[in-house]
Amino acid sequence: MNANAKEAILAAAKRAAQARGYGGLNFRDLAAEVGIKSASIHYHFPTKADLGAAVARRYREDAMAALDALRAEAPDALAALRRYPETFRHALLAGNRMCLASFLAAEHDDLPEPVLREVLAFMEANVAWLARQLAEAGITAEEQAEPRARAVMAAIAGAQLMARSRADVGAYDALIAGYRQAGMLP
Amino acid sequence: MNANAKEAILAAAKRAAQARGYGGLNFRDLAAEVGIKSASIHYHFPTKADLGAAVARRYREDAMAALDALRAEAPDALAALRRYPETFRHALLAGNRMCLASFLAAEHDDLPEPVLREVLAFMEANVAWLARQLAEAGITAEEQAEPRARAVMAAIAGAQLMARSRADVGAYDALIAGYRQAGMLP
DNA sequence: GGTTGTCTACCATCTGATAGGTAGACAACG
DNA sequence: CGTTGTCTACCTATCAGATGGTAGACAACC
């Protein structure tokens, strides 16, 4: 913990925000979890908006790294697409958390502008990744890949929301299966 | 305003919660909007949990009344289904608000138990309505109507979330259109 | 006269944030 | 070598504002 406090703060804040949102983030609890004092968090992140933006940024970076790894491991675009829902399943499983960007999207009206910017960037990055795989897999035509990618992402965000309300990963799995049956997901 | 304060409180709280969630609800702002003092709200709703549960309950009742009216006006189940997305479109249009239940689902970890119960009840009621229309319209077999209804609801919740993050009803419309094209919605 | 609804006046708690201090690492200078 | 100054990363102590909630007075109404 003494090793690199800033990283520890980011990691803890990421977890907390996925469970309680931006409004649920608070310096004292975060400090206690990391093992320092709240004033020290202000040293690394002067304001809550700074912290929120940094967390959202880190979340996006981690997610993109995971998607790139997923694509690298998968034999083709279709296989990568099939495994896309797993990305979010993991958070539900570990503490009934959800996609940070989806949570923050709900909190839209209370977000500092830099935080909101990161949220939108996360979504655009996901849409771009999805659109690439969709086109490459030949599921949609090149020019229809983006709207379809947006639909996929929105549908998955909704599934997380529903599953979280019941604190039940099974609900998420069932919804994903339903999307597949309806031809929404490959 | 003096006419029926309790109703006015509920209405204002419903609007506020659709924009800022349960955590965003606060007695002082609510009182100011209604034109009374915060202590008076405590008279009608002793605790915040009571207020939250009452708001969620009212939201569910209003929504069900709207759905019943929709079904009564529509010539058949298919027509009613086609107009289902409009229910949520309205909130987005009026102040970039979203479905209260979806918002509260995100706040799952911070909800008093009675509030959470109402959220789940709202979802079950919507699923039941959707399943009925889906079966009646012959879109799915009777026994597959419920899982499909859940998928429809989750997809629409996700669309609201995405649209809200961009404060753009057009995004919602585009996503609904995408769902239709993918065969997810009639 | 009791019930109902609202008020004024508080209170305890939590929140983000600031001021000011301190211990240690490190480099520069003489 | 040792003194000096600077920087980093933390600390203690405190603040102002917001929040949910309570007590008790008061007036209107039945």
TrEMBL record, chains A, B:
Residue ranges constituting the HTH tetR-type domain according to the UniProt record: 3-63
Start-end of DNA-binding region:
26-45
Q: Which InterPro entries match?
A: Homeodomain-like_sf (IPR009057), HTH_TetR (IPR001647), Tet_transcr_reg_TetR-rel_C_sf (IPR036271)
Q: Does the keyword Signal apply?
A: no
Q: What Pfam families does the record point to?
A: TetR_N (PF00440)
Q: Which keywords does the record carry?
A: DNA-binding, Transcription, Transcription regulation
Q: Which PANTHER family match?
A: HTH-TYPE TRANSCRIPTIONAL REGULATOR YJDC (PTHR47506:SF1), TRANSCRIPTIONAL REGULATORY PROTEIN (PTHR47506)
Q: What is this protein called?
A: TetR/AcrR family transcriptional regulator
